[in-house]
Amino acid sequence: MGHKMKLWLRSLMFNLAFYCGSTAMCFLLLWSLLLPYRALLSVVHLWLRQIAWMERDIAGITYQVIGRENIPAGACIIAAKHQSAWETMKLFLLFDNPAIVLKKELLNVPLWGQYLRRSGAIPIDRTAGRKALIGMMEAAHKAVEQGRKVIIFPQGTRLPPDADRPYKSGVAALYHDLNVPVVPMALNSGLFWPKGSFIKHPGKVTIEFLPPIPAGLSREAMMTQLRDRLETATKRLVAEARQKQALLP
User: How many whole angstroms separate alpha carbon 98 and alpha carbon 190?
Assistant: First the structure.
């Protein structure tokens, strides 16, 4: 059997397991929405670990995390690259109880949206202008008071590894208002689970947490550091992964 056929069959098996399994679990775990928050998180963590198992044993996708020592113990902002659905299913495993800034429309997804609501996510209505920003700030302040990590995708959406898109103002507003450090989170997941792609490519995803940008800088200085460091690290991770892929038989 040729390499392309094996890749297609492996991707088919993973997609069936992932999408059918996720749909089934959304129904089977509806009772967990009635649990106390920490108990609900335990259920979510269990399911996300099962997804990681499917990625590893069916799709052949593993991952490594570099730079955990750069994550402060308390509240901070995690400014993450967003290339794939893959990282959205790792955030609760990486941070236990994060407050993820996401588009409000996701809360209206049948069943899945109910889990997002209970997870303590920070929804933002991108059509509401300044009102949306005020709502985001109020929720982010509450999360920081609880010592949680506030996670935001500075470019606002999933992008292919080589895409160049401006950073939005939301991360600068959070930085200015919350007065906590920003930890850049680089990754190369888009090479293995590309946006909108049926095919899942085996290999090792790398997440790298860069040294935190301290609180107290100007918005412009923080954004310059964030953009330069995050883009440089991401390009390096993508180039390294591509080089390894080129060496595979």
Answer: 22
Q: Map out the domains of the chain with their CATH numbers.
A: 60-247 (3.40.1130.10)
Residues 47 and 29: beta-carbon distance below 8 Å: yes
Give the whole-angstrom CA distance, residue 175 versus residue 6: 46
Residue 18 burial (CB count, 10 A):
19
- pTM score > 0.90 for this model? yes
List b or e across 39-69, with b for residues whose CB sees 16 or more CB atoms inside 10 angstroms.
Answer: ebbebbeebbeebbebbeebbbbebebebee
Residue 231's alpha-carbon distances to 73, 167, 186, 211, in angstroms, are 25, 11, 8, 14
Residue-level pLDDT, tens digit, the chain, 249 residues? 677 899 999 999 999 999 999 899 889 888 999 999 989 999 989 999 999 999 999 999 999 999 999 999 999 999 999 999 999 999 999 998 999 999 888 888 887 888 888 888 998 877 666 777 788 889 999 999 999 999 999 998 999 999 989 999 899 999 999 999 999 999 999 999 999 899 999 999 999 999 999 999 999 999 999 999 999 999 999 999 999 876 555
- N residues, the chain: 249
* Strands of the sheet with 99-103, listed across from one edge: 61-66, 203-209, 182-187, 76-80, 149-152, 99-103, 122-124
For 159, residues 6+ apart whose C-beta sits below 8 A from its C-beta are 82, 83, 165, 190, 195
